[in-house]
Amino acid sequence: MPVNHNHKETLHNVRLLRKMYLAGLLGGEVMPEDANPGLDRDSATNYLYFTLPMALNYQRNSYTLWDSAQKSFNDKETVGIFNPSYVASIDENELRELLLKHKVALQPNKHCATWRTLCQTIHTHFEGDIRNLFIECDWYIPNILEYIQKSHRQHFPYLSGPKICNYWLYVISNYTGAKLSGKEALSIAPDTHVIQSTVRLGLVEERDINDSNIQSKVNKVWKDLLTNTELSLIDLHTPLWLWSRNGFKELVES
């Protein structure tokens, strides 16, 4: 259950936390996705680079995953895994070998099947270019979420999950040239650090952390808190994540 908190005071602390993040006071000079080959932000390959590994970004260290992705992209023997049409043309064993070489995949069957399905979707429905999905959805986040999470969910394994899908669109908006609208529809990706920060701010009880629906609770309390403010849920993901990861630095005016 949500803790009784002072709405005005909590909002003040949230704004302070974001100001500290923007001023570089929470760390985070290097984020996991900063491990990338520095491609043209608007290129099809850049969009694919920040899409495909995201589907494997669960129950593992994000820094290690993106480091593996960068190594695979920079290796001429494995760079083909970022080309959906190429992936769709090779057999399962060959794909498995390529994904395992730099440990982009850790689970030889499950992870490879996820990557293969996602590539087949992009190859078959979007001519190998994930930007065509955004074009079809008018670059409007509610349309994208509807397409991936509801009407075509089966074609986007794991990428369609509530945590990963929202964070993926956040990464796309920061690491590509995508001009996405409807950002207020994005929710916080409530991983362990975000949940711990939410507890620290008094928005949920610590005893609720192990509830099966804790992620939904976290999203609801944030949505309620930020309604009619200048902040959207996704604006706070990284500040909350860094605040928890670095030991809850005291909130101070910068």
Q: State the end-to-end CA separation.
A: 32 Å
In angstroms, what is the radius of gyration?
19 Å
The tally of beta strands, per DSSP, is: 0
Parts with pLDDT < 50 across at least 5 consecutive residues = none
Q: Helicity, in percent?
A: 40-55%
Mean pLDDT: 92
Q: Based on helices, strands and strand pairing, what is the structural class?
A: mainly alpha
Q: What percent strand?
A: under 5%
Largest sheet geometry: none
What does the overall shape look like? globular
The total count of helices amounts to 12
Task: Describe this protein's structure.
With 254 residues, this protein is an all-alpha fold. The chain has helices at residues 7-22, 44-49, 62-74, 84-89, 92-101, 110-126, 131-136, 141-151, 162-175, 192-200, 214-226, 237-245. The longest helix has 17 residues, at 110-126. The protein is globular, with a radius of gyration of 19 Å. It starts with 6 loop residues before the first helix and ends in a 9-residue tail after the last helix. The mean pLDDT is 92.
